[in-house]
Amino acid sequence: MIRRRIIQLAAFGIFVGTMSMTRAEEPVPRPAISAEAAAAIAHMGETLSAKGLSFTVKTIRVYLDESGQPLHIFHTMQFVARRPDRLAVHVAGDDGSHDLFYDGKSTSIFVRDSNEYAAVAAPGDIPSALNDVLDKLKISLPLVGFFYDSPDQLFLRDTLAGWQVGTAKIDGVECRHLFFSQRAGVNVELWVEQNDGAIPRRLIVTYTLLAGQPNFIAEFANWNSESRAADSEFVFQPPADAKRIELVPARAPGQIGSEQ
């Protein structure tokens, strides 16, 4: 079923290197969010706010099975957006393949393996459509914050502290390595290109308060901030033999009825 099979993922994550420190050394006090980290996130927000945007990402999510053993699940995702009201997401991973389409009027989610789909009326824009469909389907879709208004402010909303750790090359491109401590025990490491575009290249989120400290890792590629996707890319045409799943509206508080 769609509720069980569709993209059950979290946010993001990264590998943290250890640093040696002699006994005579004292930790250097850091500002809540350093100027260089804030500037990098602001530049990233400008890039993510482009009218046309597309990229691919490979993700790894670490989770615990019923016995408490840490396991990994892999996905490859392709995002294509045209603000304010077009979005397509294609996902292939260890737990199956899924597609999401938003054409400015409705949002459709198609599970290719089971040949099932659901559609929800969603006029408005990308943020309102995503809020509506993700709530109705009770699913999570990672990285959708990239397509909200002011993604830089959204990223920093729950951040308690942040600074630049250093620099590193990813696929030959010099990147800033940033670290952010967020509320609820969430640590985020982010690598962005060391230029005014500040394109994200790598992201790792670690949930330090959860058992086993699970994390989410994302590696980005194929960025295009001048995407000119045609309308047809955002319109879902279900296969003739696909089964449509009708969504059951949530009951109002106090309403009596049987479980569906």
Quick structural gist:
This protein has helices spanning 2-5, 35-48, 126-137, 151-156, and strands at 52-64, 70-82, 86-93, 96-102, 106-111, 116-121, 159-170, 173-182, 186-193, 200-207, 215-224, 243-244. With 260 residues, it is mostly beta strands. A 12-stranded mixed beta sheet has the order 7-8-9-10-11-1-2-3-4-5-6-12, covered by helices on one side.
What is the strand and helix layout of this fold?
Layout: H1 2-5, H2 35-48, E1 52-64, E2 70-82, E3 86-93, E4 96-102, E5 106-111, E6 116-121, H3 126-137, H4 151-156, E7 159-170, E8 173-182, E9 186-193, E10 200-207, E11 215-224, E12 243-244
Parallel strand pairs: 6-12
Antiparallel strand pairs: 1-2, 1-11, 2-3, 3-4, 4-5, 5-6, 7-8, 8-9, 9-10, 10-11
